[in-house]
Every structure is written in C-alpha cells, then in structure tokens.
Amino acid sequence: MTLHIDQLRNIMPGADERAALLFLEPLNAAMARFEIDTLPRAAAFLAQVAHESGQLRYVSEIASGKAYDKRADLGNTAPAAISAATRAGTTPGPFYKGHGLIQITGYFNHRDCGKDLGLDLVDSPKLLCEPGPAALSAGWFWSTRDLNWLADRKDFVGITQKINGGTNGLKSRVGFYVMAQKCLSQ
Length: 186
Hints:
single chain, Lysozyme, Endochitinase, domain 2, mainly alpha, globular, 2 domains
C-alpha cells in the first residue's frame, strides 16, 4: 500500500503542505519496512502518527522531559544514560524525552531503536527529529509492540493503550482513524 500526498493531506488536514511533502516518502518507507501494508494497518498507524505528532507538527515532545529524570523503567537512571546526558550538558529526562512521530521516550527505547535502525540514538537522540528517522522510529515502535496484530483485529483502543499507556486523546485518534480508513479505501 502506497500513501499518496492527497491521502496524507486529507487524513491530516492540519499538516501544512511542506510537512506533508517532507514526510510522505519517509512514511511510505517506514510502512513498507515494517509491513504496515494493509488498509487496517495503515489506517491505524497513520491515525496514531497524526495524533502523536500533532499532524506532523512535532517530532520532539513539547514538555521539557524533566519528569522522566528518575524513571528507571525508561532506563533514565542507568549509568550509560546519565553519562550520555551529562556529556550533552543535561539530564536523562530532557535528553531522552519523546522524539519521532510516535515519541520514542527514555534511554532504553532510544538505545534499542537506534540499535535496530543503525543510528546512534544514545548520544544523538535528536536524530529522530529528522523526517526519515522520525518515520522509521514510528514504524519500529509499531513493529516491536506487535501493533500490526492489533490492527488486523481492529483493536484500535488496544493500539492506543500500547502507544500511550492509556487512552489519552482517544476521541482525536478515532477521528483520524475514521478519516484514514475512508481516504485509504478510495
């Protein structure tokens, strides 16, 4: 399944033309690489990307990330995380705050994503702010959480919970999902 510019603009009407053009090919590459290749998978993926990125406006979490400093579950208390952040003149929370189109968060996720994508996200987490890596990291997250399986079962709430940890923004996400299903089926 190949996403076309008019489909992307209709799914994410809040994305400006420049952003849509900038992310079109990276999104297609990520979807191909991670087998997000059917209508249910693509619609769910694009809906989540639309919500998480503010319709391609944000590739870095808006919050400072300070709240993540002591999050051992994210790996931000690991000596390697503290060392890398210190070298960058900050602390692990802000250094490893959410990056990419689905907001890869924390040292462990940056490390693992970087390893799988062949990027140094331990020392350079902001690489996920570039269009190609931002889209690939979203596909990586999708794949490593087995979200294609949930999409095939049309378990959109389950997908939202895996991405968000709850159902924050569910109404917005569902709106994008409905629009994506409509646009991709034409």
